[in-house]
Amino acid sequence: MSGKYIVRQPIRDAAGNTIGHEILYHGANQAFSSDSSTSSAEFAAANTIYSFLTQNSPKVLKGTLNFMTFTTMLLMKKTPRLFDKSDLVIQIDDAVIIHPLSMHLVHQYGREGYRIAVNDFQFTPRYLALLDDIQFIKINAKTASDVTIRNTVEIAHSMNIKCIVTNIESASVYDRAVALGADGLEGPYVADKLTTQAHSSAYIQSNFFQLMVAVTRDEPNVEEVEQMIAADASLSYGLLKMVNSAYFALRHRATTITQAIMTLGLGQLKQWIYLLSASNAENETDPGSEEFLKRSFMRANFCSELMNYAHDMPISKAEAYLMGMFSTLNYLIDAPMEEILSEVPVADEIKAALLTHEGRCGKLYDLVLSYESADWERITVLAEELRIPDNMMTSIYFICMENVNTLWEQLTNPYQQRPESPEEMAQEVPEG
């Protein structure tokens, strides 16, 4: 039997900035979707899922617009009021618009300050009555012609309404939507489109990549690692910023590379290695770098946490973390994944999983990718094969997302050397 899953998929503008996420839900009663039956089961499913989102993972929904599709019943139940107006976009479709009570509810939520989005908008009388209340129009790339999209975009822009083109599954459809003036883009291709940080295989010779190779060896050379970091100002800055963040809650700040490495340990350092690449100021101007790094961390965390439930796995949790982290290396380095992995000393099972999706590691990797793309049927099949309880998947996913968001918020705050305490100053040996 299929489980209940929730996943967030990004909605991005043409520059690569994330303007929001759509919350996709799959379960026995399809609580968020328009094909739900008007039964007590829908109430139960909706209550369960919203309770989870609001009580267990409040940070997940902060800092971004969350597009959620509501049925008439959920609007009547006043479910949108469970969420902060600044975080929620009430998304409705045709089944809501034709319902005799729904229009009044939509107008009411609009007056209260909630943003409204309409799926598969059409210029027909029943849709036109909503124009004063809506902020977003969503157009299906699979069913709308170029003429329809262009006309809809032009009319919407004249009314200060933004247009999001959905179901973008390829580069050609993506480019077409951008050319037609879409404000937002959504779909499998958009979710998977990551901005590359480097565009030359020479990046393999960079300090960062060589450091990554050094720390992932079975027996890393501590002195070599320390010298690599110390020789690169951006790596040094990134390491000290990371170690002294609130995440690690050190009693005494680390002021040298040696102290930072001793605090983290090489095992931890290899797990945070990507953050050092983010320390380069050039990356901060790239709108895709945050999404890229968050995707890397999310995959790493998800792979690692799923290892608590997966059976008969030939790798450790730490190795699963690296598998998820390294799965995005081909976006970071413009070179074939096979060439990149040949330089990195990771387990053969991990290389096989990332290159050919083989073995049980390949199944774990595929499960993470399937969850990202909301491939509900594939999620269920792979979870069963790995003997992961499907009722745990959503909980694990949102816990990982919250951890990633929290960590990212802490580690991307400007690094400032805090004043030394009297105790720390007393421990310093004066010169001479």
Please outline the helices and strands:
Elements: E1 5-12, E2 18-26, H1 40-56, E3 66-69, H2 72-76, E4 88-92, H3 94-97, H4 102-111, E5 115-118, H5 125-128, E6 136-140, H6 146-158, E7 162-166, H7 171-179, E8 184-186, H8 188-192, H9 207-215, H10 222-230, H11 233-243, H12 257-271, H13 273-278, H14 281-284, H15 287-306, H16 317-326, H17 329-332, H18 337-342, H19 348-356, H20 359-372, H21 376-386, H22 393-411, H23 422-427
Parallel strand pairs: 2-3, 3-4, 4-5, 5-6, 6-7, 7-8
Antiparallel strand pairs: 1-2, 1-8
Helix pairs in contact: 9-10, 10-12, 11-12, 15-16, 15-20, 15-22, 16-19, 19-20, 20-21
How many angstroms does the end-to-end distance come to? Answer: 75 Å
Structural class: alpha/beta
User: How many helix segments?
Assistant: 23
| Helix content, binned percent | 40-55%
The CATH level-2 architecture of the largest domain is identified as Orthogonal Bundle
Mean pLDDT across all residues, rounded? 79
Q: Could you give a short account of the major beta sheet?
A: 8 strands, mixed, barrel
Name the overall outline.
elongated
Number of domains: 2
The poorly predicted ranges are 28-38, 196-201, 281-285, 417-432
Rg, Å, rounded: 24 Å
Strand arrangement in the largest pleated sheet: 1-2-3-4-5-6-7-8
Strand elements, count = 8
